[in-house]
Specification:
- It is a single chain.
- This protein has 435 residues and is of the alpha+beta class.
- The chain has two domains: 244 residues, Creatinase/methionine aminopeptidase superfamily (Creatine Amidinohydrolase, Alpha-Beta Complex); 145 residues, Creatine Amidinohydrolase, Chain A, domain 1.
- The chain is 34% helix and 19% strand.
- A six-stranded mixed beta sheet has the order 4-3-2-1-5-6, sandwiched between helices. Strands 7, 8, 9 and 10 form a four-stranded antiparallel beta sheet that branches. A three-stranded antiparallel beta sheet has the order 13-16-17, covered by helices on one side.
- Helix 3 crosses helix 8 and helix 9 crosses helix 10.
- The two termini are 23 Å apart.
Length: 435
Amino acid sequence: MPLSSGLSRRNFLAASAAAFAAPHLPAQSTPTQHPAIQSLPNLSGQARPFTNEERQARIERARELMTHNNIDAIVLANSTSSSVYFANLHLFGGERLWALALCAKSKPFLVCPAFEEGRAHELLASGPLGGDCDILTWQEDESPFALLGHGLTDRHLGSATIGLDEHMAFVFSEGIRAANPHLKLVSATPVTAGCRMIKSAHELDCMRLACRATLLVYRAVAQSLHPGMTTADVRQLIDAAYRQVGFEGEASLNVDAFTAVPHGSRQPQTLREGSILMLDDGCSVEGYQSDITRTFVLGKPTSKMLSVFDLVRRAQTAALHTARPGVPAAEVDAAARKVITDGGYGPGFKFFTHRVGHGIGLDGHEWPYFVHNNMYGWDLNPKLAAGMTLSDEPGIYIPGEFGIRLEDDLVVTENGAELLTPQCPSLEDPFANVS
């Protein structure tokens, strides 16, 4: 359940751990050489890079969706994972506009600062566009927004309908609008999300591998815990475990009453016998994310913890069994929420305080979302389709006591849905079925 903003939950808790880390930790508090960590397999060799042929197929699909949605071109600016998805382009320009224009029926072009032209050629050479993409450059005292308009005009798109990436900075979208009053500017999301929501077999392989790596890390970390450790100690275990499996990843740990705060706390926390613990987040394989939560107890759970766990597990199962092609995403949230409400932890969002899930892929949060009255601006009531991947993460959070969340990632199949990871079997032994 990571945040999707620039200050991600992963970064937030990393900063928090650093802020509260003790200046000197006892050797026994940071056993990064624990056998469970050292015995983790390195999985990096199982990841397959994406090819330019795959990316070119994505561009062709984008062109089909542009035509279907009456959009003549889409513009992707600066830091956006969509430019990576389509063209293997990491556009990091800060306040300077880098913009990739993909046109429905004409040659693409890239707008970049003039002093970056050499780097632009190098970046394009590694992707599917190669030499089949014009580079338009602007000097520091010139308008990149007007230059973008000229590039469109040269392709007979001076008064066309142009889709702007939903993650584009306001200063860029407004700059484009002001410099090009004859353009009709709309959201590019029907094209970008329309492509990215449906995962290929290769994308699913990456996500399955990321999910497996995350569960192996969680199990090894859980086996290395003991009373007296701090959350800063546990972060060192997590970092060591991800280095061992060979992927970049992070996770947060929250303890006892802090597990009732869905996105955790920056307060220092110490494990004790009987603590309830919540591990959350994931890793990246070829850019594709995992997002998994496991809640468990360091010792013996109480009867209330067991009953709440059972209710959350049944809610996760209800969401999984509801998800299938053609079903509105809102119905999946409603199915999980009904189980929790019927179990005495309602109404509405009283104890189950967030939606049941979010899309996941190159971004930790992306289209679509399991929620009623989706207010993210493109489709208020999206329906599921085969190949969509989302988190399934119901939770019950009891302020001042504890919270329990179970999170796995699912894929919508032709006839239903399946989890990419084995469902958590119990609060006492959450990793019994991990292999």
